[in-house]
Write a structure and sequence with these properties.
Layout (H helix, E strand, L loop, with lengths): L3 E2 L1 H8 L3 H8 L7 E3 L2 E5 H12 L5
Antiparallel strand pairs: 1-3, 2-3
Helix pairs in contact: 1-2
């Protein structure tokens, strides 16, 4: 079974505030799914996205 992260997890991993974490998660190319009014981020996709960030700048 796949593991999923929350926006709070993203905030903790990147060591940023919740508001900035939501700004990142709301980007069109960020891997996420919405369940009701909550986001769930597939852990494997998040790791790939993070690798991509290492080699490029993000707004």
């Amino acid at each position: 079974m796949d593991e999923y992260l929350t926006v709070e997890d993203v905030s903790r991993i990147y060591r940023i505030g919740k508001k900035k974490a939501y700004a990142i998660v709301n980007q069109p190319d960020f891997p996420k799914m919405r369940i009701g009014n909550q986001f769930r981020i597939p852990k494997k996709d998040f790791e790939e996205f993070s690798k991509h960030l290492l080699y490029s700048s993000y707004p």
